[in-house]
Design brief:
Blueprint (H helix, E strand, L loop, with lengths): L2 H27 L48 E6 L5 E2 H6 L6 E2 L2 E9 L5 E3 L5 E10 L1 E2 L2 E2 L2 H17 L12 H15 L5 E8 L4 E2 H9 L4 E2 L5 E4 L10 E4 L2 H7 L8 E2 L1 E7 L9 H16 L1 E4 L8 H20 L7 H6 L2
Antiparallel strand pairs: 1-6, 2-6, 3-4, 4-5, 4-6, 7-8, 9-15, 9-16, 10-14, 11-12, 12-13, 13-15
Length: 348
């Protein structure tokens, strides 16, 4: 082989290497799409408690617990007004005269009936007859405590409803406005520091992701599409209960992904949220949140960061877990255990 031939071959090899390097760099820089998702090998994650529900896809509906009953009025969080009936009325009649909006300002209110056959209080339903009625307005929520204007609006709507169904509201049975507002402020003050929503941001280390890619990766951990574009949820074991976890990407990017050019939309971040008061501690939502954040970080090639942009360490996860144990205890001490009907209504 002559020197000229050898140099020509060497030059060809160098050019081929440069071309391959350029192709690889371009490939890494473009958004990752769902078609590129490849199931990962089984791995062992850092232990943060018992294995959570996000390890596998959700159970079929037939294997879940029975649907939960509608939340009843609770004197702990509701101001309740009795509605006296002269004779039992049908559920159809009561339902037809309900106010168009069951809210007083920002606070929800409810009207229940005492079923004439079962003797139990329940949400109004057709096909039932009720011997007594009662209405209650929620005294606090994440929007704050019930105020005087909201309570007055509630009483006016209850009186109008009572007149429509031929019932009456005795003035002596209507709780005093100043006392109700004082109770509402006290309740809001007691629970204000117990409302926790844990959110971790997953930020791409390299290439951006398509929305479909994020959704495909999350689906392998049991997440399913939510009601809002860009959201996926990890369902609770209890049918009809709020989701255990919520994974969200930018809503505008999610809407663009539903259009004619889904690959044109890319994101570099998504958030994973645990709404603490909505799920019982026994369901181990925090270990599920931690494990999902770890798995998603690995599978998406992302870094988990807090709201200050700092990477979340194992020590930070452990500290959060210890803080939550105290929060769960304090909620139980107030008869507002996480996942209970009262807690879910109050922290909403």
């Amino acid at each position: 082989m002559t020197l000229a031939t050898a140099l020509a071959l060497l030059g060809g090899v160098v050019l081929l290497a440069l071309a391959l390097h350029g192709w690889w760099s371009t490939r890494r820089a473009r958004p990752r799409h769902a078609a590129e998702a490849v199931p990962n090998a089984e791995r062992v994650e850092p232990a943060m408690g018992a294995a959570p529900a996000c390890e596998a896809a959700p159970e079929p509906a037939a294997l879940r617990s029975a649907p939960r009953r509608a939340a009843r009025l609770d004197a702990l969080i509701d101001a309740i007004v009795p509605i006296a009936l002269e004779a039992p009325i049908s559920g159809e009649m009561a339902l037809s005269h309900l106010p168009p909006s069951r809210r007083a300002g920002s606070k929800p209110f409810y009207i229940e009936g005492l079923d004439a056959d079962s003797g139990e209080w329940e949400s109004l339903a057709p096909g039932h007859r009720y011997g007594e009625l009662q209405a209650g307005v929620q005294m606090a929520s994440r929007s704050g405590a019930l105020n005087e204007i909201e309570y007055s609006e509630f009483v006016q709507k209850v009186e109008a409803f009572a007149d429509a169904v031929g019932a009456s509201v005795e003035g002596a049975d209507v709780p005093d406005m100043l006392e109700v507002v004082a109770r509402a402020r006290e309740l809001d003050g007691l629970t204000n520091g117990l409302d926790a929503q844990l959110t971790v941001t997953l930020r791409a280390n390299g290439a951006a992701w398509s929305v479909a890619y994020v959704q495909q990766v999350a689906s392998r951990l049991g997440f399913v599409p939510g009601a809002v574009p860009g959201r996926q949820v990890l369902p609770a074991a209890e049918e009809g209960a709020p989701p255990m976890l919520v994974l969200a990407v930018d809503a505008q990017a999610a809407l663009a992904a539903l259009g004619e050019a889904p690959q044109a939309s890319a994101v570099r971040e998504c958030t994973l949220t645990l709404d603490v008061p909505q799920t019982p501690a026994a369901a181990e939502p925090f270990p599920a949140w931690h494990r999902a954040a770890t798995r998603l970080s690995d599978d998406l090639d992302a870094t988990a960061i807090d709201d200050q942009g700092r990477p979340i360490t194992l020590h930070a996860y452990a500290t959060i877990g210890e803080t939550l144990q105290d929060l769960y205890w304090r909620l139980e001490a107030l008869d507002l255990a996480a996942g209970s009907a009262a807690a879910r209504r109050l922290f909403s």
